[in-house]
Every structure is written in structure tokens, then in C-alpha cells.
Amino acid sequence: MYPSTLPAEADPSTMNGSVAEPPDFQAATAAAAAAARASSLEQDEWSVGECGFLDPDVQRTMRSGSAAEDITQYPMHGWVDVTKEFHDACAELQPGELAQDMLFGLFEAMSAIEIMDPKMDVGMGFDKQDLPPPSFEAAIATGAIKLDDLTPSELIGIYDALFSCLVSWLEGNSMDQVLFTCLYLHAPAQIKDKALRVFCTAVRNLIVVIKKIIAVAAVNEEEDFQLYGNSALLAAEKAQPATVYSSLKDVEDELIRKCKKLTSTEDWMAVVHRLRFMRHLFQVIYHVEQMASNDTVDDKVDIYKILLVASEMLPGIRNTLDRGTQPEKGSDAPNPMGFSPRIHDRSQPPAFPRSIKIRDRPSSYQFLEEMISRFKYACKVTKYKDYYSALNFFIEYSKKSGQCILSRSVLQTLFSANMRMAHGKLPMKQFLRHSVQVFNSPPVLNAKHPVAADPKVQQHLENFFRYCINMNTFTQFIRICGFNRARQRDKLARLIENFDTIQVDAARLDSMMNQLANERAMEGNEPMATALKHSTHFSTWVLYNCFRAMLIFLMSGFELELYAVHEFLYIYWYPYEFLIGFLVSALTRTENILLAQEEYAEHQSKTQSGGSGAAKNRKAAKPKKNKKTQRPYRAEIVFYHALLSLCGGMYKAMGALTKDGRVRLPLSKFDNEEIRYNRRFLPFATLTSPPPVSYAEFKNVREHMMRHSVEDLYTYAAKHFDQARNVLESIQNPDQEMLDLLQIARTNFVVMNVLARGHQKEVKRQPEFDFSKHSYFPIIKLK
């Protein structure tokens, strides 16, 4: 602790007041105490403005009657060196020991700015001789920027720099530190050059439109995008996005007419191409924003055509990047004229991330090209009219969209800007009702079936779907797929818990239907009784979606690198023993239900045809040749069989590697496997179907497996990989994911056979698990 007695040269009588010091003065306040003693001896040396710890209201009161300080001058501080006192205080702390003061605890320490760190301390970028960054008015007065008669090279340079700033903003940087470093964006109305004024106005309006799309979609997190910035900069001029398209078109036409009078038009046409690209990009994004705000859906084929035109212009724009002014070497400004990178440094919060690197121009246009491709792919969501196909599309899109928050938000808007509506016009309750009908076709949802007219049946169905909407479980599942991959896992954990109540309600509905079937059978209404005995349509549909959420949650841990190698054993064991089998069972049951309904419909048709005696009906009842049987989920079932074999192979391989001593295990005194197991499967603990699997059950299964020899376990793992290889090779027209899984299965099959023969038996090195080919299944590499 800091000594309780004062040094001889520091007389307590010179201090303000006579407060006795406590016997144990905390080490963390020693430096502050030394600074306070020094300041008391030189009270007249510092000004009020340098007392940064004073409340602003107090400072204003103390300044009353005196002239305000000149804020344009570089601040002068009367620093006091407390290095020696600070090191003396720190020397009294043991390694790992922290000092805490009543006003400075762990929270303040984590929020503090690291002095002398360029990434945190904004003052590190300035010298005392530096002039303050120029404002828009100051830049005009000094001639640093031009407002009229800009050359094509200058226009191209500013346009390209603004596109780079826009991309940097979409990547999660602050709007103030990237976009509004462009001085032209502060007051576009004062720009006399029409081409530059209209472009800067379009960028300002684009900022407003993009912020609204992302806010309405609500799939962003703080690490994805910063919605809020200096709103005063945007409020300086009222946004009028409806007029931007026509303004860009007018300027574009004027420049084209100008080019017809010139002999050399390459530079001006490069300007035109950038204006045209901005016009098409703005038109698409503004149309999406209108869909989000007005709940109206126009023909989205127009959006796709506009995106095609925009994508066709990007190669030509990239070929003319060298025609514009280029950034100066060693400068942070994306363009020599019109940008002031540090203009907002002193207006940011104290703990704001300071180090901002604006993208270079080639990679920015590459980002825009990929973003437009994602927009075009997102337009395909309008083709999927049921929940099963829409969810598949969202899961696939999530894997391809990367970290682009705007692409994910556009997809959410195209599908459902309002959580109560699907595709902008279909109520979500009707959408879910249609989805169940498409998934396994319950007769009670068929409007032409006699059972659909039963008011009691319709009341039960209405209650079930209203409950699904109120719980928001199914709509939230689709919305979760719009978040970034790391946040999806956290939100899926909470979503899985909500499935349990819907499962109970679906099982209750199925039970009521079966009860009604028995009542109708007793009344002699056999057709209606047969229709109501529908083999748990609703429970199967709910369970299938629950199993999918569980599988995505569990396997995403590999993609996010959350699991240690020694945990792979029970992570792969759970889908191998339970999850994938449940999914295959649900889909197989659904196919069997569809087949049974098809056979029943054919039987009814034959019965009606035979009873009529008409030749026309007999001809219609004749069975068709080569009639295709309803097996809509056969491809997915086959794929899940391949995943089942891969999980089984990894489970047996990890068991063999662990028993062989090739997997590093944590020290027993620092480890509790049961706690880790329960934590990994915690979201599943509240479910009644499937029932949670305790650690004791897993331990019994593992002990039973470990009774086999290491060579046998390697052989069993090889057989699983071989089964996966055979299944994947049987799939016609495989996609890239299936081809990658096929390569993984082949490679691991060879590795397991090599280890089963005793290769490197004396060398107990942990193999490398390479996840570069697939996020969930690694290639096992021997070192």
C-alpha cells in the first residue's frame, strides 16, 4: 500500500482544508494524490478549461465574466509528471493484483483510453504545430476545395473516393469517420458544379435510405453496423430521395450531350458511367426502402433487371480507375481534394475506436459487384411461397452473404418487411397454414375436403396458427438467419426453448383431431373419420423445424471455433445418435403420409368411377402409366444419411484417437467434463421432444464404445466414412458442398485405414483437424 505519511517537503498546511489521510492509502490513487499536491502549489498556472475533470456547468459558471477561449487554437495543457509516483505505487502490487478505488473500478479501467496508443489516443496523431482540420467553410476560404469547373479527373477521383467511403461505412465503421470526412457532403447545396452537387446529394440521400432499411429489417448488431452518427450533418439539408433519380438522369443526359461536341470523350464518359451506376444503385435501394415503409410490393423483376444493368457497368468503371485523381502516398485521405480525415476526431465519444482504414478503390468496387450479385440472388426469395422452401433459402443465403449487413437486410425486406406479413401482402397466419399444407398436406387444410367445413375443426386450427403467430417462433427462425453467423448461435439457443410450447400445442391439436375422428366414426361418417386420422401432421411439422434449429446451433460451434478438440467426441455423438436420425424419421414419416393420402385418393377415385357405371368415368379411372410417386424429400433424406455417416465416422475416430493417446486432454484438476457437457447442450434441456440426454447416458455409451480395441475403432470409423462416400457418390448433380464432403469422406477413410494398420503407432502426436473444406467436418491430417 502507499505510505500513509507525507514526504517532508509536502506540508499538509498548504493543502485546501485539513483532512486527515486514512492509514491505508490505496495504491491506485497514489498518482492522483501526487498530482493534486503539485497542483495546489501552482494554482495559478492552469486555466479552468484544462481541468477536464470539472463538470461543464461548473466550468461555465467559473468562466462567467471572462472572454471565452478560442476553440480554434491548439489546446495548451500544464502537464505534471507523475511517472515516478505511479511506478512507486505499482511496485507495491503483487503480480495479478489489482487496485480499486471507490471512483475507479474494473468498469472504468476497461472503458479508459490508453494514452500514447495511436488507436485509442486521438492526440497521438497531432503535433502542437498542426493546424486544426479545416471545415467546409474554412476549406473554401483557403482554396483547398473547388466548387465549380471541376475537371473530369477530379470528379472521377471524388466519386471513387465516396464509393470507397460508402463501402467502409457498410463494413461497420462510423459514418462520421468515413463518409463525412468528405467536406462536400456537409453542404452540397453550395456546390456550383452540377455533376458534383447531384452526386453528393444522392450519397446523402442514400445514407438516409440505407439506414432506414437496416433499421426496419432489425438484423444488425453493434459489430455489424453503426446506425447513429452526427445527425446534425444529415439534418443540414432535408433528404428528398424521390427526386434523386431524375436529378442524376438529367446530369447524365447533359454530359452525354456535352460529349457529342468534344473530340476526346473518354474521361467524361467515365464520369457518366459512375453517375449511371449511382442512379441504378439508388433506384434499387430506394425501391426496397419503399417496400419496407409502404407495405406494398411491386414487380420485383424490375429490380432484377436494374441490377443486371448496374452489374454490367462495373467492369468498365474498374478499367477507368486510373483516370481519376489518386490518393497521396502516406495520407489517410481517400482523395487529395475534398476530404479531411480528422475533422471529426474531437467530436467522437472518448472510448470511440479511432483507427479507421478506408478501403482502396479496386476492392471497394469488388465489394459493390459482390453486393449486387447478392441482391440479385435475394430477389429469388419471392419464388418460395411456403415456409419449408423459404427457410432453406434463408439458410443458404446466410452462408453466402458474408458480413454484408445491407444484403441481409434487403433479403429480409423482400420477404417480410412486417413480421405479420409474408411477401408484403400475405398474412403470416395464412402463410404458415399454406406451408403446413405444402409440407405434409393434412386433409383438414384442404378447402375441397368435406372435413374442412366442420366448424369445430376450423376453430382448433385457428387457435393453433394464432398461437404460432403470437409466439413468433417460426417468423423469428427466418429472421435469425439474417443475423451474422456468430449472433445466430446465441439467438438460436433462445429460439429452441420456445419450440417446446408449440410442440405441446401441436400434439394437443393432433390429439383433438384423432378424438374427432373417433366421434365421426361412431356417427357413421367414415370418410370424415378417415381424413381426421392423419398421423400427426402438425407435430411432425413442428418437430422437423425444431430439429433443424438444434442441428444448426450445435454444428455452428465448429464454424465459430468454440469447441476444443477433446470436445469433438460428444459434439459429433449427439447428431449421430439422435438429431440426424430424428430429421430422417420426420421426413420419412412425411413422405409416407403423402403416399398414403395418394393411395387413398386413388382408391376413392376408383370407387366413385366403379359406382357410376359411365364409360367416361371408367376411362378416367384408368391408371396412368409411369406415374411419378410423391417423394419430395428424397434428396434431403439422402443428404442427411451422408451427414449421419460422417458424424458417426468423426465420433468413432475421436474415440479411437482419444484411446490411442493422440488427443491432448485437459488436466483433471482443472477440468469437469460433466459441466462442459451440460453447458454445450443447455438449450436442449427444456425440450420435452426430443427429451434431453443426460451426461450419465453419454458416459455409459462412451464406455461401451471404448471397450473395443483401438484398431477396431479406427476400422469402424473408416466404415462410416466409406458409407458416406458411397451415399454422396450416388447423388446426381451434386453441388459444391456435396463435392467437398465427398473429398473429406475419401481422405478420412484413407487416414483411418492407415491408423488401423498401426501407422505411427509409437508417435502420439495430435493430428491436425482442417476445416478449410467444410465448416462442420474436418479433414484429419497426420503430422
Please give a structural write-up:
Residues 95-227 form the NAA35-like N-terminal domain. Residues 616-629 have a biased composition (Basic residues). Keywords: Cytoplasm. Belongs to the MAK10 family. This protein is an all-alpha fold and 783 residues long. It is built from 28 helices and 4 strands. The protein has 3 domains: 136-375, no CATH class; 380-562, no CATH class; 635-686 and 694-781, no CATH class. The protein has helices spanning 30-41, 56-63, 83-91, 106-111, 136-142, 152-170, 175-178, 194-217, 231-235, 244-259, 266-294, 301-319, 361-378, 387-400, 405-416, 428-440, 455-471, 473-480, 485-522, 526-532, 537-559, 568-612, 615-620, 634-659, 673-680, 695-705, 710-729, 736-756; strands at residues 421-422, 426-427, 768-770, 779-781. The strands form 2 sheets. The protein has a two-stranded antiparallel sheet with strand order 1-2. The chain has a two-stranded antiparallel ribbon with strand order 3-4. Strand 1 (421-422) and strand 2 (426-427) form a beta hairpin. Helix 6 (152-170) packs parallel to helix 8 (194-217), helix 10 (244-259) runs antiparallel to helix 11 and helix 17 (455-471) packs antiparallel against helix 19. The two termini are 52 Å apart.
